[in-house]
Write a structure and sequence with these properties.
Radius of gyration: 23 Å
Strand content: 25-35%
Largest sheet: 6 strands, antiparallel
Number of strands: 21
CATH superfamily of the largest domain: Immunoglobulins
Order of helices and strands: EHHHEHEEEEEEEEEHEEEEEEEHEEEH
CATH architecture of the largest domain: Sandwich
Number of helices: 7
Helix content: 10-25%
Keywords: Signal
Structural class: alpha+beta
Distance between the termini: 30 Å
Shape: elongated
């Protein structure tokens, strides 16, 4: 019987942002390796607008602080949070003033086409009050290669109590390194797109090894081109442990697949069996893809198992863990 598989073509694309609605997006996204386009300097707020605005609101807008965060569920979606706040010690009458944030985006040479994840979302900030807006990252700009934390400005449009709108560009802080990690992952993904396509099978085949129930998911690897990037492995997850205690599956076919495609079996055991934790897991169905470029290890990027595979995996857990 032919095993059903969900396939994705992994190829270099021009710098356009595509809707992440296909399995190809779930597997390899739409990353593009290309040089960042020059950006025009932001237009300064008009004197009329600044003069008309409530002075206390202007002080509050000037005091805005933005920090980058990313929830585990947003990691796979490539969405970052702009956490907007005003210091408690904001000067003047700002502590008694509120601002409505009506638009927010992230301006960075590391990505082209960043956009608001929810254009209709608005939040109200004031001294001591923190709120978040969400930005979907665009196409990565990978020439030159990522090196450290990319520059980034939060571009905020705020509405004052008297209805005036002000625009502020705020240099973001990123204490947990989310932007540097995301940029590295996106560009590693772009490099992998050049060399191979992956097809993750839907079926989860139950088996047994040394008295322990195992499962196997098959990945078909088909080379697309020869570059200096090599696929080296697929890492285990919080739910799936490669057989034998290894940290990753490292089948040689990953890096030297036949032109017709090579099937790589990923045989695993359950890391845990507590039903509640598995049901609430957020990252256990994302496989990490490891690569090298010119022999140098690249950041690990992740691909999620297809929906049907995830459903079959839950049935396998029920069997392997003897759930009633």
């Amino acid at each position: 019987m032919t095993q059903a598989q969900a396939r994705t073509a992994v190829r270099r694309r021009p710098c356009t942002t595509a809707a992440l609605t296909t399995l190809a997006a779930l597997l390899f996204g739409n990353a593009a390796a290309c040089a960042p386009a020059p950006r025009d300097p932001p237009a300064a707020p008009s004197a009329a607008t600044e003069t008309a605005a409530d002075p206390a609101a202007t002080v509050l807008a000037d005091a805005l602080v933005v920090e980058i965060e990313q929830a585990r569920l947003d990691w796979g979606r490539r969405v970052v949070s702009l956490v907007i706040s005003v210091p408690d010690d904001a000067p003047g009458d700002a502590p008694d003033t509120e601002l409505e944030v009506v638009a927010a985006n992230l301006d960075s040479p590391a990505w082209d086409g960043n956009r608001s994840e929810d254009p209709d979302r608005t939040v109200t900030v004031a001294a001591g009050r923190t709120r978040s807006m969400f930005v979907a990252l665009g196409d990565p700009q990978c020439a030159p290669a990522p090196d450290g934390t990319p520059e980034a400005l939060a571009v905020l449009t705020v509405r004052t109590p008297d209805g005036e709108e002000l625009t502020r560009e705020v240099a973001v802080t990123d204490p947990y390194g989310h932007l540097a990690r995301a940029w590295g992952e996106d560009c590693a993904r772009a490099g992998a797109e050049e060399v191979a396509s992956l097809a993750i099978g839907e079926e989860v085949v139950a088996g047994e090894h040394d008295g322990v129930t195992t499962g196997t998911i098959t990945v078909t690897v088909t080379p697309e081109a020869t570059t200096d990037v090599v696929l080296t492995g697929i890492t285990g997850t919080q739910l799936l442990a490669p057989l034998g205690g290894a940290a990753a599956w490292t089948d040689p076919s990953l890096g030297s697949a036949a032109r017709t495609g090579s099937e790589v079996p990923l045989t695993f055991t359950a890391v845990r069996c507590d039903r509640h934790a598995i049901a609430e897991d957020k990252r256990g169905t994302y496989l990490g893809i490891t690569t090298t470029r010119d022999g140098v290890a690249q950041p690990v990027f992740h691909v999620q198992l297809p929906e049907r595979t995830r459903a079959n995996l839950m049935e396998w857990f029920a069997q392997a863990c003897a759930w009633e």
